[in-house]
TrEMBL record:
It comes from the Bacteria. Belongs to the UPF0065 (bug) family. This is Putative tricarboxylic transport membrane protein. It comes from Vreelandella subterranea. It holds the Pfam family TctC. Residues 1-23 form the signal peptide. InterPro entries: BUG (IPR005064), Bug_dom1 (IPR042100). The lineage of its organism: Bacteria, Pseudomonadati, Pseudomonadota, Gammaproteobacteria, Oceanospirillales. Keywords: Signal.
Length: 332
């Protein structure tokens, strides 16, 4: 069967290990937000963007890092494209932020958004998450191998995800299928407006499996859960609530998929605002409240400041352009 040439598709550069370099660059900041900051999750509640936004907002408040409220706002639709179109019209607004991850690169490349990462202001990359494969707790699929065998026998088997066709979850499950010897382009991927929607449809019996972010699934797993986790895309097992879930590699599929997550701002956000948020988020990552939440969600810190994050996004665009072309999903 055809397979992608990329056995390991990793979208995460090495985690930023120390904050000493940042400390040397920090300068006294005169600018602070004037009132509440809009913090947009470009999807419905329950997905990876939503989880990041609400976790950050809560930690900033609990740790008393800022006087202002970071108001979580959900703007679903188009795998992020609806929110991006709204944000793009608010040029220069220093008090509007949004969560971002690989769909910021993938959706425009697939031709599903007129706006791409170059239209916005990179603020900071924060963490990496991983993909997780879920089925209903009563499903016949007990292992990842069971599901992959079923997908080979029935290419119409539906796998839902919280991002648009050709975007993050689609690429993640296509890469897994390819690494297992299946036809990546034949995966029957069903898009939903966020991982929460995908999991709801799985529990409702509308699809056979879900591929989503491991962090956003934590609240749906555990004793009495309606879902069963078959595997995670990390190199090694995750900690916290996800510690008992085997990796793909443990189950004989040599494939990993890392999901970076970060924050971007409006087009041409003022430099003093970018600097303020860079320093705020770097400080947040060092708090007990953040580290507790991060460990519970199975995230790893992967901080980059605005300049480094912008260069990283450019590299991601080049990488995923090749991947989408190989899958026949690159837009015109």
């Amino acid at each position: 069967m055809p397979s992608l040439s990329i056995k390991r598709l990793s979208v995460l550069a090495l985690p930023f290990a120390a904050f000493s370099a940042i400390a040397g660059q920090v300068q006294a900041q005169e600018w602070t937000p004037d009132g509440s900051v809009e913090f947009i999750a470009p999807a419905n509640p329950g997905g990876g963007w939503d989880t990041l936004v609400r976790t950050m907002s809560r930690v900033i408040q609990q740790e008393e890092l800022a006087d202002e409220n970071y108001a979580a706002i959900n703007v679903p639709g188009g795998g992020g494209a609806v929110a991006w179109a709204q944000i793009a019209r608010d040029e220069g607004n220093p008090q509007k932020l949004f969560a971002t991850s690989p769909p910021m690169i993938l959706v425009p490349l697939a031709g599903a958004s007129r706006y791409d990462h170059t239209d916005f202001t990179p603020v900071a990359r924060l963490i990496t998450d991983y993909s997780i494969v879920l089925v209903d707790a009563d499903s016949d699929y007990q292992t990842l191998e069971d599901l992959l065998n079923a997908m080979e026998e029935d290419p119409g088997l539906s796998v839902g995800g919280g991002s648009a066709p050709g975007s993050m979850d689609h690429i993640s499950i296509a890469g897994l299928a390819s690494a297992a010897g299946l036809d990546a382009a034949a995966v029957n991927y069903i898009p939903f407006s966020g991982g929460g929607d995908a999991m709801t449809n799985l529990m409702g019996g509308h699809i056979e499996a879900v591929i989503t972010g491991a962090g956003e699934s934590v609240g749906q797993l555990g004793e009495g859960s309606q879902l069963r986790a078959l595997g995670v895309s990390s190199e090694e097992r995750l900690g916290g609530e996800l510690a008992e879930i085997p990796t793909y590699k443990e189950q004989g599929v040599d494939y990993t998929f890392d999901i970076w997550r970060g924050v971007m701002g409006t087009p041409d956000m003022p430099e003093e605002a970018v600097s303020y948020y860079e320093n705020l988020f770097a400080e947040m990552l060092e708090t007990d409240g953040w580290q507790e939440a991060r460990d519970q969600l199975g995230w790893l810190d992967a901080y980059q400041d605005s300049e480094a994050f912008g260069a990283f996004l450019d590299d991601q665009q080049a990488l995923f352009s090749n991947v989408l072309s190989e899958l026949g999903l690159l837009g015109e």
